[in-house]
Input
Amino acid sequence: MPVMNIIEAINNTLHQAMEEDASIVVFGEDVGFFGGVFRATVGLQEKFGEARCFDTPICEQGIIGFALGMAQYGMKPVPEIQFADYMFPAYDQIVNEVAKNRYRTGGKWPTSMVIRTPYGGGIHGGHYHSQSPEAQYLHTPGVKVVIPSDPYETKGLLHAALKNDDPVIFFEPKRIYRASKADVPEDYYEIPLGKAKVAREGSDLTLIGYGAQHHENMKAAEQVALDGINVEVLDLRTLYPVDVDSIEASVQKTGRCVIAHEAPKTMGFGAELSALVTERCFLHLEAPVYRCAGFDTPFSNAHEHDYMPDAPRVVKAIRDTLNY
Output
């Protein structure tokens, strides 16, 4: 079984999927001959030709609008937006057209596509290359949102997204594109959308996260374990639909919950998760739900390390919740 990083897992998955399904077309800025700014699409144009893997102008609303038209004709577009920060010019297309098209046509015009985009901080990209805008799309019925945390999860979730009938935004944690490595089967496999993973079992507190943040959560859980604190760590994998059952079962067992994500705290996905936990687990809670998140400021390049909710900040959140 080969060891891959996340970039290699994406590339492997796209090669497999395009071999199996001739309707899949990959396009975006520099994804063709150059293989993408992060090299995730290397070799696709060479193998499948320019008709199935090609470059586009620097026009995000055009990229997604083009994908919408292709999807309506039964193709499976996989557009890449070079950075998640650049999705905002395409926001109208995603929210008002892509997300609503299947519903408004009674299912007659499919809008099946996978929008791939790297997100998050940790690469000193400044405030135009470091944002985590997932919550803005989670408020949009009709779109599924997936965020893997390692290469194994990436391949299984991306294959599942490519088989899905709904549009999927596939946020890729670029901070760990090459840092995260894992054994990845060469054969085809799927990880079902909407199913979280219990990455570490525990009894004292539930720690919820996704993407690159999951690794900081695991570090924090291992650190407090040295003091006899037993933390259960959930990797959500899919943010919409979110695995309510796994969250509820974990919090009812532990009685405490910390939610960690890179995005700003106010109106971040942690707020929705906190409400969900409070509504479903109120009688089991021994302390308020704690949100450990990015700050309500533009992403700071000079103070990037301070902005990120790293393991020491998560450890503090765990201790504060346990000492409530």
